[in-house]
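SAMPLE LOG
Freezer: B-3
Tube label: C17
Construct: single chain, 99 aa
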Amino acid sequence: MDSKELWSRTRDELVAAVTALGYPAELGHEIAKHIGSPKGMERMISYLRQVRPNKVEMVVDEMISIRSEIDAWRDKKASQEANAAYNEMLYYGFGEDDE
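STRUCTURE (predicted):
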């Protein structure tokens, strides 16, 4: 299964979970767009099925929380990569010969 197919399938499952709680399908589509990743959408689906929130504010708060965690993880990974590149540069130098 390619990534587009996985994203579409997970989005459809998220929309189904949202509509099962009585919210409009458009909310599910917006949540999918905002979260952006199948793994994040799966976390949202799990939340919806387990908690069964009765207020749309709770749904949106969880969506924001999941997106914030995704962004923090990406920032951490980017920082680790930059730090590794910097440390390599310090260890091996700039690639210029001093001779």
